[in-house]
Amino acid sequence: MIKNPVPWPNGAKVACAITFDIDTDSILHLEHGERAPDMMATMSWLKYDLVAIPRILEMYQRFEIKQTFFYPAWCMEQYPHLVEMILEGGHEIAAHGYLHENPNKLKPEEELYWFNRQIDVIKKMTGKSPRGWRAPLYNYSKSSTDFLIDKGMIYDASLMGDDIPYVLKTDKGQIIELPTQWAMDDWPHFTHAPDMHYMMPIKSPNEAMNVFMSEFEAMRRHQGLWITVWHPFVSGRLARCERISEMIEYMQNTGDVWFATMEEIAKHVQKCIDDGSWTPRIDKLPYYDAPIPELQDGTLA
């Protein structure tokens, strides 16, 4: 099923990263602007991050694992005590935009402005440049790869083109892609927020976990990469967080899992490339520079 699996450390059958995107109330301000301060119920729902993040960090400490948090830089500035808690736990903070802006709605120079601004904040608050990035809502633009390369990042976590790591290559260079996909994101399973225009039927924790775990077991059978995307205000809720804890315990008891930060996974993949023990698939980007020719004459528009 996977013809070219990565040789994971210590004979592990699957590499796993439980990543959290800490968007807090950035998404409400970005979408609703002046109306956001009056939207008290939705604001309180998003600010549940203040309760959930300490709970998640305690859970990670209990299981003795280090993980990655993708953090919009504006949120870091608003809630610096949470940044300190994450760093004290030895976890990675990776880039996730400044105010969760959409790169696909920005001109390249505008995307670069916010890209640089997020990096400046992360460097100031963590003491080092981020090593990876996840585009807000996966809105990766055709300019994003070059910005990542220019800023010395080693991985992206926005795309969905494989079950294992692969390489993104442009004329400027290349970076490692650590892919995920929508089935491994908590948003479609749990998010019901009318003010945000999301009206998903809410699943029980076990129903959602059936999806996550079916993906895990397949990745474990075939030596894949299992990266999940969660949000503290969504999955840090009691019943869901309890179920995540049970999930981690089960995964650790298999003895087959390598839990790692995204930076650790990317560095391991690069090491395998460099020593010749693994050869990646390469995607040359952008996939298209313009609309396909069949659409350019306007007859199908």
Could you characterize what this model shows?
The protein has one domain (9-296): TIM Barrel (Alpha-Beta Barrel). It is 44% helix and 15% strand. It is built from 13 helices and twelve strands. A hairpin with a 4-residue loop joins strand 8 (192-193) and strand 9. The protein is globular, with a radius of gyration of 19 Å. It starts with 13 loop residues before the first strand and ends in a 5-residue tail after the last helix.
Query: How many β strands by DSSP?
Result: 12
- Elements, N to C (H/E): EHHHEHHEHEHEEEHEEHEHHEHEH
For this structure, what is the CATH homologous superfamily? Glycoside hydrolase/deacetylase
Strand content: 15-25%
Helix/strand layout:
Elements: E1 14-21, H1 26-32, H2 40-46, H3 49-63, E2 68-71, H4 73-78, H5 80-88, E3 92-95, H6 108-126, E4 132-133, H7 144-150, E5 155-156, E6 166-170, E7 173-177, H8 187-190, E8 192-193, E9 198-199, H9 205-222, E10 225-230, H10 232-235, H11 238-254, E11 257-259, H12 262-275, E12 282-284, H13 293-296
Parallel strand pairs: 1-2, 1-10, 1-11, 2-3, 4-5, 5-7, 6-12
Antiparallel strand pairs: 6-7, 8-9
